[in-house]
């Protein structure tokens, strides 16, 4: 897939969609093999509410680390498709990770970012994306040629299907609303870690 094919929409023309709905669409397209690393906050909560899988990792109090953790899992298990599910505020804290992923040509990694323009969980303070920062443009500048804004729900599913079937790395961004999450993640770090290790077939 060429860079032009991946660029399906401009940021300002992309539809603002519901984060919980997009998360359910993502989970519905996974099987028992893909690992999903959910960033902190409402992105994480919606992943939990969409159905717990042992291959999901629900981050707690580690803002900005969804992409680095997913990158590490992808390196450790190259046969497994790995998805980093992140919010705009968290990604802005760790932009250097995009260049690292691009430089490594990590083919089994997809990064999905839900951009609502605010730090929603801490009071909806505006992030830089509310002032025009374009995360897809940053990803492309970092070397991730297969980067795109999802134009709408159908386009999001189309991009997901390609990312799950073709070599990456991929970067998919979606503009989302600030609706409350569908649930709240269980906050037992040891349990989350243990379940995830079992899901990846790793023993202590």
Structure characterization notes:
With about 200 residues, this protein is α/β, with parallel strands linked by helices. It has a single domain, classed as Thiamin diphosphate (ThDP)-binding fold, Pyr/PP domains (Rossmann fold). It contains 9 helices and 8 strands. The strands form 2 sheets. It has a 6-stranded parallel beta sheet with strand order 2-1-3-4-8-7, sandwiched between helices. A two-stranded antiparallel ribbon has the order 5-6. A hairpin with a 5-residue loop joins β5 and β6. α2 crosses α3 (about 40-50). The chain starts with a helix and ends in a 5-residue tail after the last helix. The model is unreliable at about 1-5 (pLDDT under 50).
